[in-house]
Design brief:
The protein is mostly helical. It is 59% helix and 0% strand.
Amino acid sequence: MFQFLILTIFVLFGAVELFQWLKGVMLPLPIYVLAGAFLAIASNYDRGMGLLFNQAPSAENLMQTAVIIEPEPMVLTAESMDSVATQETKIGENEVD
């Protein structure tokens, strides 16, 4: 039991010393940029990043994220023009008051 206690103390001491040493290490900005790019590629590899490495993405990993809805074209008729004119007249009357 005593050996385990001594071992635990040494491990904790080593961890604290390592942590203090790592706090003092300053890496240049390009290393941070490259590390960030690597993490982005590694974390998104299964979502179609295989194209960058000449691998075809599988259909199960691709998903549609948006649906384009095209509005139906408005057909102008005499009745629709009358309703537009009536609405404009009502709007004009409200502005005068």
